[in-house]
Amino acid sequence: MTIPKLALTFEEAAEACGYSVRTLKYEVAAGKLMARYANSKGVIRVEDLAQWLDDLPAEPKAGHRPVSKDDEKDVTGRDTVTNDVSTAEVVGKPLYRKPEDVAPELGMKPTELRRYCRESGIHTRLSQNRIMLSESDIEKLLEWVAHRQAKKGEWWTVDEAEKDPFA
Length: 167
Fold this sequence. Notes:
Elements: E1 7-9, H1 10-17, H2 21-30, E2 36-38, E3 41-45, H3 46-55, H4 88-92, H5 99-106, H6 110-120, E4 124-125, E5 131-132, H7 135-155
Antiparallel strand pairs: 1-3, 2-3, 4-5
Helix pairs in contact: 1-2, 5-6
């Protein structure tokens, strides 16, 4: 006869819920998950783990693609679930890309692209410091850069009559 466990170690809890030990410890530190300690060994009650899982949001955070039946098509409208050879490359293509991966395609340095992202506000932020770009972000950013380059010549050509008389 096996007795059901009342509490799980962090490793057991991580295996049971599918999250990493690091994530669980972060949630404990944030006060979202309750851990109990006997000396220095931490355990999580099965009920507390189940409650924490129930309290998680039903949709992913902004910037992450939901995994629902409605999202089985990628941004081009092609089916990404079937095993058709013509759509095989669509399934493996990431939805969001790092500026380091996009910059060489655009003929820029990664630092220049990140600066443009910050100045224009055209990007997706997955965490505090992690900038990612979707295909629509890249298109909007290219338009913004082209518009900025076009206006660059206009800023320095101010007629003498339009200058501020008090400057």
